[in-house]
Write a structure and sequence with these properties.
Layout (H helix, E strand, L loop, with lengths): L4 H6 L16 E6 L2 E2 L1 E4 L2 H4 L14 H24 L5 E2 L11 E5 L1 H7 L12 E6 L2 E6 L2 H14 L3 E2 L7 E2 L6 E4 L1 E5 L5 E2 L6 H6 L3 E2 L14 H6 L4 E4 L2 E7 L4 H15 L6 E3 L12 H4 L6 E2 L4 E2 L2 H16 L6 E7 L15 E6 L17 H14 L3 E3 L16 H13 L2 E4 L7 H16 L5 H13 L3 H17 L10 H4 L2 H17 L3 H29 L5 H18 L16 H23 E3 L7 E7 L3 H4 L13 E4 L16 E9 L9 E5 L2 E2 L1 E6 L2 E2 L2 E3 L3 E3 L2 E2 L5 E4 L9 E9 L10 E2 L3 E6 L1
Parallel strand pairs: 3-4, 3-5, 5-7, 12-22, 16-19, 19-20, 20-21, 21-22
Antiparallel strand pairs: 1-2, 1-10, 6-7, 6-11, 8-9, 12-13, 14-15, 17-18, 23-37, 24-25, 24-26, 26-35, 27-34, 27-37, 28-36, 29-30, 29-33, 29-35, 31-32
C-alpha cells in the first residue's frame, strides 16, 4: 500500500479512479470523512461455509467453486473499502430494509437482481455482469456467481485498487477518507471466454478477474483407448519406427474415433463436462503407416522441417466431435495446435465446437511477431490468422518463459504488447498461456496479457505505465528505465535461440553493467519500506542472473576451477529465493517440486559441464591457455563431407565462415531450424608434454552427436556404458577423447568436429554449445 494520496493522484491510475475526496450531487457516497455510509447486503447462501466435497470428486463442482469465489469477493469488497478509507463496512446476510434511509445499500447477487433486474449483456459461460450506481443503492450482479464476482471487482477497479503481483506486496490501494461512486448503469462481459495464468494464488487470480471456462486441451487423446482395446484391435495401433507403438493410434481409422467417442458418451452420462481434450500425447513420433500418411495434406512446416500433421489430426477430431455432438451439442473440444500440428489446415474444416489451442513452441519468445528479421515470424502471423479464419474461435497458449534458461529478467513488454492484441484480433477467446511462478522476471507480461484479455480495448502502453507508477511509487521513473532497458536488450539483439546458450551475445558485460546501474538507481529512489521490498525482488533476480552470467564467462574464458562450486551456490540460491518469495510466486518454485524449474533446467543444460570442467582443471593440466572457441564452420545436409576430405589435416577451409561457439548459436548463424549437420575446423598448437602422459580433447557441451578427427584421424570415444565408439552422443554433456597417438607435442594439431542434431528441440541450437579444451595427465 502506498500511503501518500498526493502520489496516487499523480499516477496514470487517476484516470480510472472513481474514488473522490470531494463528491458531486450525482455521486453515491459510501464513506464520508472516514465514517461509513454504506453496508453490504448479500444472501446467506453466498456467505455459507464450504459444502463438504461430493463423494468420489477431488474438487468442488463448478457451482460450488463459483459460490466460494463470490463469497471471498464479498469479503474483499468490505476489506478493501476499509483499506481505502479506514472505515469498516459491515456485511449483512439479508436483504436491506425497505426504509434504509441514510445508508447506501451495496446489494450483491440475487438481491441486486431483485432490485435492478438482470444484466443487459449475456456472454458465454454466463459471464455477463452489471453494475448499477443509483441514489441510495449500488447493485453488483451477474448471470452467475462468477459474473457477480466480476461486478464487485469492477467497483474496486474503478476505485483504483490494483493487484500486480501475488501477495500483499503486490497490491496498490488508494488512500482517501471519502469514497464516492459516480452514478452509472453498466452492463458488460469479459473480452474472452477464459483468461488465466498457471501460478499465483487464488486471491490474485480472483481480484484480476481471471477465469471463465477453462478449455481442456492437454495431452490426452491416446488415454481414451484402453490396453484391452488395443490388444483386441491391433489394427488401431500406430506404426512408429517399423514397430507397433505403445501409445500412438491410427487417426485414419474411423473405429478409433468411435471408441474415443464412446468413452466420452459414457463419461458424459455420469455428469456434465464443459470441455474435452482431443490433443494427442506429447512428442514428435507419429504413425508412419500408409493409411495415416494418406490423409496428410502435404503442407510443409519449416520450423520442424516435416510435413504438417494438422489435417490428419482434424480427421479424427472431427469424427469424435460428430459422434458426441448429436447427444451433447454444447460441449467444447480443445485440440493443441502444437509441434507438427501447429499450422492451420489446408483441406479439413474445423468443427464448430472444436477449439484449436495455438501453442507455437518452435517460434520466438523474445521478439514481437511483427519483426520479419526473426526466423519464422511471418509464418507465425500467418498461422494465427489462418486458424482465426478457419475456426469459430481459438485458444492461445503462448509461453511466458524460456526453455533451457528461464531465470533471466524478461518483462515481455514489447513482445506481448504486440502479440496479445494480434491474437485477440484474430478470434482468440481463450487466453491460456503457459506460465511459471516467475513474477520476479515477467510480472509486466503476466499482468499485461490477462488485462488485455479482460478488455482488448485497453492500450498496452497505458497498462505498463500504470503498473510501473503504482507498483514502484517514488522509484517508478528509475524502475521504468530499468525494465524498458531489459526489454530492449531482448528485442534489439539479433539472437533468436532465446536460451542461455546465446546469452554471451545478448547479455554483454556492458549491458549487464548498464542493467545493474539502472536497478541501483531504482533502489536509491525508494522512500517507503514496501517500495524497497518490491525493488529488492528485482534486485535479487538481477543478482542471481549476474552470477549466472559470471559462470558463462568463466566457462568461455577458461576460469574453470570454481565453476562447480559456483553452480552449487546458484542452485542453492534460487531455491532459497523461491522459498523466500513463495507468497509472491517468484523464482519458479513449483508446488509439485521441492526444486525450482530454473534450477532443474540449470542442472540439465549447464551444471554437468561446469562440474566436469572444474574436475579437469583440478586434476589435470590444461594445455590450451584459453579454451578453443573460434572455428571455421560449414553446414552439411549429409555425411559426404568426410568423403570430400573435410576432416583432413590439409583440407583448405579458408572459404568457410568463422564462429565463436560460446557466442553464436545455429540460430544466430542462420540455421535456426537446421536439423542436420555442421562441420567445425580449427588448429591448436600442442605444447611439449612429458613422455607417457595421455593427451585428451574435451567437448564441454554439444547439441546432438559429435565425431572428432585430429590431424585427419578419427578419434574414439570411450563410452562408460557402451565401450569404445567412433561417435559421441549426449545432449549438453561433456565428453573427452584420447588424442595422444594423433598429435605431436610442440606442433599444431588440426581438429575437425562433425556435429549432427539427432533430436528435435525448440531452442535454435545445434552442434558445439561450449568451448573445446585440450589437457594432459599431471
Amino acid at each position: 500500500m502506498i500511503p501518500p494520496l498526493r502520489f496516487i493522484l499523480s499516477s496514470l491510475a487517476v484516470l480510472f479512479l472513481f474514488a473522490k475526496s470531494v463528491s458531486t450531487a450525482a455521486d453515491v457516497i459510501l464513506v464520508q470523512d472516514g465514517t461509513p455510509k454504506a453496508k453490504i447486503y448479500v444472501s446467506p447462501r453466498v456467505m455459507a461455509d464450504n459444502e463438504p466435497p461430493v463423494r468420489g470428486q477431488s474438487a468442488p463442482a463448478e457451482p460450488e467453486k463459483q459460490r466460494q469465489r463470490l463469497r471471498e469477493s464479498v469479503k474483499d469488497l468490505s476489506v478493501y473499502l476499509e483499506k481505502i478509507s479506514g472505515a469498516p463496512i459491515e456485511i449483512v446476510t439479508a436483504a436491506p430494509a425497505k426504509d434504509n434511509s441514510g445508508t447506501v445499500s451495496l446489494v450483491v447477487g440475487e438481491l441486486a437482481v431483485e432490485a435492478f433486474g438482470p444484466p443487459a449483456k449475456t456472454a458465454p459461460f454466463k459471464q455477463g455482469f452489471r453494475l448499477v450506481v443509483a441514489p441510495g443503492k449500488v447493485g453488483m450482479l451477474g448471470e452467475s456467481d462468477l459474473a457477480t464476482s466480476y461486478a464487485i471487482y469492477e467497483v474496486l477497479d474503478r476505485l483504483g485498487c490494483r493487484w500486480y503481483m501475488p501477495g500483499e506486496w503486490g497490491e496498490v490501494i488508494p488512500q482517501t477518507k471519502t469514497i464516492a461512486l459516480t452514478a452509472t448503469d453498466f452492463s458488460s462481459a469479459p473480452g474472452t471466454i477464459y483468461r488465466g495464468i498457471w501460478y499465483g494464488d487464488e486471491a490474485y487470480k480472483r481480484r484480476n478477474r481471471h477465469g471463465g471456462l477453462l478449455l481442456s486441451a492437454g495431452h490426452a487423446l491416446e488415454g481414451y483407448v484402453t490396453d484391452a482395446q488395443r490388444a483386441a484391435h491391433p489394427e488401431w495401433v500406430a506404426e512408429v519406427g517399423g514397430k507397433p507403438s505403445k501409445r500412438r493410434l491410427k487417426w485414419s481409422d474411423p473405429a478409433v474415433a468411435d471408441a474415443i467417442g464412446d468413452f466420452w458418451l459414457d463419461r458424459l452420462g455420469k455428469g456434465p463436462v464443459n470441455s474435452i481434450s482431443l490433443s494427442p500425447d506429447d512428442g514428435i513420433d507419429f504413425d508412419e503407416s500408409k493409411a495415416d500418411k494418406a490423409i496428410d495434406a502435404g503442407d510443409f512446416d519449416t520450423t520442424s522441417q516435416a510435413v504438417s500433421l494438422t489435417d490428419r489430426l482434424l480427421v479424427i477430431c472431427n469424427r469424435v466431435v460428430a459422434r458426441i455432438g448429436t447427444k451433447y451439442p454444447d460441449v467444447l473440444y480443445g485440440m493443441l495446435a502444437y509441434g507438427p500440428t501447429t499450422r492451420p489446415p489446408v483441406r479439413e474444416k474445423v468443427a464448430s465446437n472444436l477449439v484449436p489451442q495455438i501453442a507455437p513452441i518452435t517460434y520466438s519468445r523474445a521478439h514481437p511477431m511483427t519483426m520479419d528479421e526473426v526466423p519464422d515470424n511471418k509464418e507465425l502471423r500467418q498461422l494465427i490468422e489462418g486458424w482465426g479464419k478457419t475456426a469459430k474461435m481459438t485458444s492461445v497458449y503462448f509461453y511466458a518463459w524460456f526453455l533451457a534458461e528461464p531465470s533471466a529478467p524478461n518483462p515481455m513488454i514489447a513482445k506481448w504488447s504486440t502479440d496479445v492484441p494480434f491474437v485477440l484480433r484474430n478470434n482468440c477467446q481463450f487466453w491460456q498461456p503457459e506460465t511459471t511462478a516467475n513474477f520476479e522476471t515477467s510480472m509486466h507480461g503476466l499482468y499485461l496479457g490477462c488485462r488485455l484479455a479482460w478488455n482488448p480495448a485497453l492500450k498496452p502502453a497505458d497498462i505498463i505505465a500504470e503498473l510501473n507508477t503504482g507498483f514502484y511509487g517514488h522509484a517508478a521513473k528509475e524502475m521504468t528505465a530499468y525494465w524498458n532497458y531489459i526489454d530492449e536488450v531482448w528485442v534489439g539483439v539479433p539472437e533468436y535461440s532465446g536460451c542461455g546458450f546465446g546469452y554471451l551475445r545478448r547479455w554483454t558485460p556492458e549491458r549487464m553493467a548498464r542493467s545493474r546501474q539502472l536497478l541501483n538507481d531504482g533502489m536509491v529512489a525508494c522512500r517507503t519500506p514496501v517500495e524497497v521490498q518490491r525493488v529488492k525482488i528485482a534486485d535479487e533476480s538481477l543478482e542471481l542472473f549476474e552470477h549466472f552470467m559470471k559462470m558463462r564467462h568463466d566457462q568461455a574464458e577458461g576460469r574453470w576451477t570454481k565453476l562447480a562450486a559456483d553452480a552449487d551456490y546458484w542452485r542453492a540460491r534460487i531455491s532459497y529465493l523461491g522459498e523466500k518469495y513463495k507468497a509472491q510466486s517468484c523464482f519458479t518454485l513449483m508446488p509439485w517440486s521441492p526444486a525450482t524449474l530454473s534450477g532443474g533446467y540449470f542442472h540439465q543444460f549447464y551444471q554437468n559441464s561446469y562440474v566436469e570442467e572444474s574436475r579437469v582443471a583440478k586434476e589435470y593440466q590444461i594445455l590450451t591457455p584459453q579454451p578453443v572457441r573460434e572455428f571455421r564452420y560449414m553446414a552439411a545436409a549429409d555425411k559426404a563431407g568426410e568423403a570430400q576430405g573435410w576432416s583432413g589435416a590439409t583440407f583448405d577451409d579458408s572459404a568457410w565462415k568463422t564462429t565463436d561457439v560460446c557466442v553464436d548459436t545455429w540460430s544466430t548463424l542462420g540455421y535456426h531450424a537446421w536439423f542436420k549437420s555442421m562441420w567445425y575446423r580449427t588448429s591448436v598448437k600442442i605444447p611439449a608434454v612429458p613422455k607417457g602422459k595421455k593427451i585428451m580433447l574435451m567437448l564441454t557441451s554439444t547439441d546432438g552427436s559429435a565425431k572428432v578427427f585430429v590431424n585427419g584421424q578419427p578419434m574414439t570415444y570411450a563410452d562408460p556404458k557402451k565401450g569404445a565408439r567412433d561417435e559421441f552422443e549426449g545432449y549438453c554433456t561433456p565428453a573427452s577423447f584420447d588424442i595422444t597417438d594423433a598429435v605431436k607435442p610442440g606442433a599444431s594439431a588440426q581438429i575437425s568436429i562433425f556435429c549432427t542434431r539427432t533430436d528435435f528441440n525448440e531452442l535454435g541450437t545445434g552442434g558445439l554449445l561450449g568451448p573445446v579444451a585440450i589437457y594432459r595427465e599431471k
